[in-house]
Specification:
heterodimer; A: 491 residues; alpha+beta; 9-stranded mixed β-sheet; two-stranded antiparallel sheet; 13 strands; B: 257 residues; alpha/beta; 6-stranded mixed β-sheet; 4-stranded antiparallel β-sheet; globular
Amino acid sequence: MGLKDVYGSGGTADGEEGGTTGLSVFVLELQHNHCGWDFKIEDVPTPARTTRWFQLVLFPRPASQVCRAITIDSEKQLTLKMKLSHLVWREIAHRRGNFCLMLISVVLAVACGVCAITLFDAQHQYNQQQIGVLDNEIRKITKNMGFNILILPRDQNLADFYADDFASQTMPESHVEQLAKSRDVFTIRHLRPALVRKLTWHEENRQVILMGVRGVVPFAHRNPKKPLADPVPPGKIDVGHLLAQELAIAPGQRVTLLGVDFEVNKVNPVRGNKDDITVWVDLAQAQQMLHLPGKINMIQALECNCASVDRLAEIEAEVSGVLKDEVQVIELATKAIARAKARTRVSAEGEARLQRWRRIAAAVIPLTIFAAGLMVGLLSFANVRQRLQEIGILRALGLRSNQLLGVLLAKPAVVGMVGAVLGYLVGIGGAWSLETVWFMSADYQSPPQWVFKFTVLLVVLLLTPLLTVMAGWLPAFYASGKDPAETLNLE
Amino acid sequence: MLLELENVSKTFSCNDHPVRAVEELSLQLDRGQFTAVCGPSGCGKSTLLLICGGLLRPETGTVTLHGHDLLSLSTENRASVRAAHIGFVFQQFHLVPYLNVLDNVSVASLGLRPGSAEDGGSVETRALELIDRFGLRDRIQHLPSELSTGERQRVALARALLNRPKLLLADEPVSNVDPARAEATVDLLCNVATEERITLCMSLHNLDLAKRYFERLIGIRRGRVIFDLPASDFNSEEYRQLYELDDAELLSDSYGD
C-alpha cells in the first residue's frame, strides 16, 4: 500500500493532538482500525527530490503490544515544498525598483571604498618603487663615499676659508690623536690631518697650494682599515697634474720648493679641481718649511656614516665632545649630502602624498559607508512600510516572528552580497581607470600599478552584507514584532 | 467543544473616545458546527472573529481553543496554534501581492512547525486540489492584481483550508460578490467543511444564506449577543431586533467592525 492512497483521508481523524498531516492521521486511524497488526513505514526511492513516497508494511502483532503509543521516526519528518526563500525571491522580483536602488547605493559605496583603498595602495606601491630605484642609484653613486667633513680651527673665519681655499688659522696636530684615541667617535671612519697654504713657488715662479700630509691616522680602538690615501714619504713630493704638465715635471725628477730639495714621488692624475695645482709633502716637512711646528690647519674626516638625517650635526656633536669647542666642522663632499637630501625629499614627498590620500580616504570611506547604510536603512524602512499588510497576512497565517525577521532581512543580505561583489569589481575597475590617467600623467610617467589585496576582498565580502543586514535590522525588527491585527488595520 | 469564549470584552479608542466593540461576550462552538454571526455594520462581528482566531487580544475574558488557552500563550505559540488549527478569511482577502495563485494558497503551510505538515508533494497536491475545487485551475500562475474580486475571494478561501484547519473563521467573505456567486461560494465552502469536518464560523449579512446553510445563528448588536438560536428558529422578530436602528446608531456608525 502506498501512502499516496490515503492522502484523501488525511485530517479526518478525530481527537488527535496536532495530527494534521496525512501521514500521522493515517497512522492514528490505523491504530484504531487495525489493532491486531503492527506496521512499519519505508521510503520508496523516487527520482524527484520534492516528493517522497512511503510504503506501509503490515504484519501481525502480539496482543500485549497492541495499545502501545505510536510515534513517527524523526527521520521520517517531512519537509514543506514552500520555502521562505521562495517569498524572498518573489518579493525581490516583484519590487525590482526598490531592490535596484538598494543595490546601486551599496555598489556605489563599496566601489568608492575599494577605489580609494586601491588608489592609496597603488600610490604607496609607486612610492616604494621610486624610493627603491633612487636608493639603489644613490647606493651605487655613493658607494664607499660617505660624508666628507673638514674640521677647522674654531677661530677660522669661514668667509676667508672659502675665498682662499685654505684655513689661515691653525690648531695643534695633537687634536688628531685626541680624536683617534677617543671612544666617543663613531661616525668618522678616517682622519687625515693637513697643513695647507697657498704660496708662490719662487723657484718656478708659480702660485701653488702646498699641502703637508701624514696619511690617515688610525683609530686606536678600532680594527685597522685600508687607508684612503697614502702618506708622502719625507723628502718626496707629489705634484698635481696641471702643474707637472706645465713645468714638465716627471716622477723621479728633483725639484726645489722653498729652498728644500725634493724628489718627485708621483704626478697625480687629472682631478679637475684645485688638486691639479697642488703639491703634497710630508706634514712635518711642511710644518718646518712654513715655520709652524706641531700645527695643522685642517683635519679631513672621511667617509662619515651617520644614522640620523641631520648627519652634520651628529658629527659635529661627536667632535665637539672630544675637542671642547676648539674646532668647527663643515661639509666637504656636498654632492653626497645633496643626493641624500634628494632621497629624503622623495621619500617625504611620497609620504606627503600618501598622507593626503589618507585624509581623503578617511573622509570618503566612512562617509560613503554611512550614506549607503542610511540609504539601505531608509529603503528597508520604506520597503517594510510597503509590506506591512503582507507581514500582517503572514503573521495571521501563523508565521513566527523569527521566520518573518528572516524573510525581511534576507533582502538586505542579498543586496549586501551582490553589492559587495559588484562594488568590488566596479571599484577595482574604477581605480585602474583612474590610475591609467593618473600614473601616465606628466608627474608620474609610469604604468598603472596593479594592486590586488585578498584582505580587502575578504573584508568587503564579509562586512558589506553585515552592514546592510544591520541597516535593515531596525525596520525588520519593528515590523516582525507587530500584532497582525494592527498591521492589517483590522481594529 | 472546540472553541469557548467567556466574558470577553474589547474596547477601541477612537479620537480619545472609548468604543466598546465586544462587551462581556460568552460563546461556545462545537466541533463540526456551522455558525453564522449576523448583525449590522459596526456591531462587533469582525472583532469577535479576530478574538476567536487569536489575532486580537481582548481586555478581559478567556479564549479556549481545542484545550489551549489562547491568551496565556506567547505570541509565537499562538501563531503556531493559529497555523495548525485555524483558517481565517479576511473581508479584504489580504492576498500576498507578489505571489501567484498556487503560491498564495501554499503560503499557509509556512506557519506550520517542521515535521507537523504534509510533505512537499502533498502541500502542492492539497493546494492544487483546493484550486481545482474553487475553479481557479486556469488562473494558477496569475497574481492577485490580475484576478477578479470573486477569484481573489476563492484564493483566500483555498488558502484558509490548506492546512485542514479545525476551525475556519470567515469575516464576510461573500459581501463583495453578487448574490449568485455568493451562494455558490458558501455552498462550496460548506461542502468542503462538511467533508473535512471543519467547524465553520462565518459573519455575513445575507440572512437567507445563513438560514439555509448554517445550523446556528448568532445575532450581535453593540458588541453583545442578542440572540443565539438554531437557524430553523430564526424569525422576523429576531430580524427586527437585529437591524432596527435607534437614533444613536443613525447619528454614529462607529462601532467595532
